[in-house]
Each structure stands twice: as C-alpha cells, then as structure tokens.
C-alpha cells in the first residue's frame, strides 16, 4: 500500500472532521452564498500527478481552485430547474450511504440486504403521497430514468397486446404514444427506448391558457386508432405552469379503452401532501405508472427519483429488466432483487437519504414544506401581478411562476434582464418560452425558503427593472 493511501487510512477521523467543519460552515452560510458564479473564475485543467498528494493537500487544492465556484444551488433563493435543498436528515443519510457503500439489490442476499431499506422507503413514500400499496417502486437517478423505466414496461405491455415480446424481439411495429405537453425527459426516454421521440401523437390542450390535455381531442384520437392499444403520457404538473391533466376524466376513458396510463408527476405529485391542493392529483392512483422526483420537493440530495408501477405488471417488468438470459422462474417477488426490476445493475443506496428524511420529519413535516413553498410562490405571484414591470404568463397554480417583462416591446429585453438578475448572485431563475413569448420561471421547492427570501428577490428584481428603463 502506497504511503499516501496508508496515511489517509490512519487519519480518516481527522480528514472527516475537516470535511465536517467545512460542510457545516457552508450550510450555515448558504443563505448568504452566491447563486451564480463568474465563468472567468474557472481554472485551467490540471494534469494527473505521478505521485498523489494525499487527501488533506487535495482538499486545499479543491478549496483554492473549485470551492469558490460552488453555488448555493441547495439554498433558499435558487429557483431554477425545480431544485430542492437537502434537509439535514437527508444529508446524514447521504453520508452514511457513502460510508456503508452498499450495492443495493437484494432483500435476502448474503452479501447485501439494503433493499429492505429501499422497500421500506418506497412504502413510506406511497403513504406520504396517498397512493395504494398496489404500486411497486424503486429508486433511480432522476425523472429521466423514472420515465424511462415506466415507459419501458409500458412498451413491453404494448408488445404483449400485439403478441410480441419486444424485450426479446425488438420493436417491429409502430408504438402509439399520445401526449400533450410532455417533459423533455419523457421525450428523451422515447428516443432511448427505440420508440422514437418524433413518433408522438400530439393531443391539443384545453382552451383558456392551459397546458392540460384536451379530453375531447384525446378521445377523438383514441377513436381514430380503431381499438389499437396505446401509451398515454400525462402530466401531474407541467414544467412551465404546473398544469395538471384531468385524471378523473382519464380514469373514465380507461374504463372504455385499452391503454397504458403513465403520469409524469416529478414535482407536482407532492400536491398530495397539501389538504388544499391534493384535489389536483385526484384519481392518479388509477394510473399504471407514475414518475416522482425526490431531489425536488422531497428535498434530498441529487440524484434521486422513484418510479411507481402497478404490481400487477411485475412479470412485464422482469421481462424488460431481468439480469439474465434465462427465463425467470416462479414469482419474482418471492426472490426479489432490484437487478430484475429496473435499468441499473450498479446501484448506490439512494433510498437512505429519503428514508432518513421521511422518518425525521414525517407527514406533518413534509406537509409544512409543501405548504410553505406554495405560500412563497403565491407571495411572489402577487408581487408580479401588482407590478408595473412584470406580468404573469399563466396563473399561479402551485409552486412555479411563469412570468415575463410587461409589454410586448420588452420581449427583446427578457434574456438581458434574467442574465443581470442571475449575475447579482442573490437569486437564480431559468429562461423559458410560453405561448410564443419569452419568459422566466421561478420554482419554489426548497425547505429553507421563507417570506424574507421572497422580499430579497422581489427587491432585487424591482431595482433591476428600474435600471433597465
């Protein structure tokens, strides 16, 4: 063993204490830390050393070269990309995930049983989101892989409806995908699955500044398929305006027609935690599969999401993902192994941060996080509505505000305004386009965000708007 590695091993307590102190200092000052960084500060690449420096010296190098570039993306005023912030409990769970370094697969294996933790975390998430136990779930890296996992099983279902085993034979027939405003990750999953991102049958949206599926147009397209099966990708909160499809109406269509119903509820699914807003997900339990992101409103570290697929499709799921060319014998749940139920063979124990946070704060804690985010978004929306400088592009439906500079003549200044706003380091938002207009998105999901943060954000915006006049 080389001296540097041996020395680090002997000094592990000292090294972890240094990291702990640096981490605590960062977390305690995260509200003051910049939300963006000057690209001019990016250092030149450094070559791999012949002899290693040892961890303590490398930490000094990191602090000199990269630490100043670390933005407060988990802080209270980072409103871009629907990004949550790690709760203290989830940080603890994440550290332990690294320390114990399990390859999470089995519930009975001699080498590892950490999937027991995962299944327990899934059960708690189903309880939190008021979904039935008839869903089988697992942790993946994000909404991209959750959508991929769900649609992959839907693809296998579609093939079986056509008497084809797509997992073995490949795609030999067109697959009908119906959707209105799918998230980019859902479209990407169609590309990766060989279905084709351009093979979507686009459904109209409801009238009146909506992004929800037009139920009438959906049924019209269903009837044109003349009884052919199809896969419906619906939205449990669109990215721009957090619009929800009418799940009750879709449930009724499912009673009449043969289709796989998938809901992308990456962050909108957490509306189920709110007594005031849970009506938005009414009847979503009738879906065949659901995507939910954990590193958004659950506020656990990146990268974390879950898929929920009805347990009745477990054989289709195994046919899609089984880790062997041999046929699966017997009930796959009796000798359960995540190797056979999702894409990744190598899996970190991503469930542990979620398990810690769910156990630490419970239903009431997450209800408070969700309600607080909605409160802050409504406050921000009221500022936009009462301002002479800004206007809403869509109603504030939950936790994300889509807005722009007031007046068509200001459209050419929207990107400039956003760049200047983000450059202040006080807040970070992302650009968008909605109804042929340039806009800005602000997503409130961070557990740290307060009324005080909204005040700081709106003051910075008002000052910049005045300077641009």
Automatic annotation (TrEMBL):
<dbReference type="GO" id="GO:0019752">
    <property type="term" value="P:carboxylic acid metabolic process"/>
</dbReference>
<feature type="modified residue" description="N6-(pyridoxal phosphate)lysine">
    <location>
        <position position="296"/>
    </location>
</feature>
<keyword id="KW-0808">Transferase</keyword>
<dbReference type="InterPro" id="IPR010977">
    <property type="entry name" value="Aromatic_deC"/>
</dbReference>
<keyword id="KW-0456">Lyase</keyword>
<comment type="similarity">
    <text>Belongs to the group II decarboxylase family.</text>
</comment>
<dbReference type="GO" id="GO:0008483">
    <property type="term" value="F:transaminase activity"/>
</dbReference>
<keyword id="KW-0210">Decarboxylase</keyword>
<dbReference type="GO" id="GO:0016831">
    <property type="term" value="F:carboxy-lyase activity"/>
</dbReference>
<dbReference type="Pfam" id="PF00282">
    <property type="entry name" value="Pyridoxal_deC"/>
</dbReference>
<keyword id="KW-0663">Pyridoxal phosphate</keyword>
<dbReference type="GO" id="GO:0030170">
    <property type="term" value="F:pyridoxal phosphate binding"/>
</dbReference>
<dbReference type="InterPro" id="IPR015424">
    <property type="entry name" value="PyrdxlP-dep_Trfase"/>
</dbReference>
<dbReference type="InterPro" id="IPR015422">
    <property type="entry name" value="PyrdxlP-dep_Trfase_small"/>
</dbReference>
<dbReference type="GO" id="GO:0006520">
    <property type="term" value="P:amino acid metabolic process"/>
</dbReference>
<dbReference type="InterPro" id="IPR002129">
    <property type="entry name" value="PyrdxlP-dep_de-COase"/>
</dbReference>
<protein>
    <submittedName>
        <fullName>Aspartate aminotransferase family protein</fullName>
    </submittedName>
</protein>
<keyword id="KW-0032">Aminotransferase</keyword>
<dbReference type="InterPro" id="IPR015421">
    <property type="entry name" value="PyrdxlP-dep_Trfase_major"/>
</dbReference>
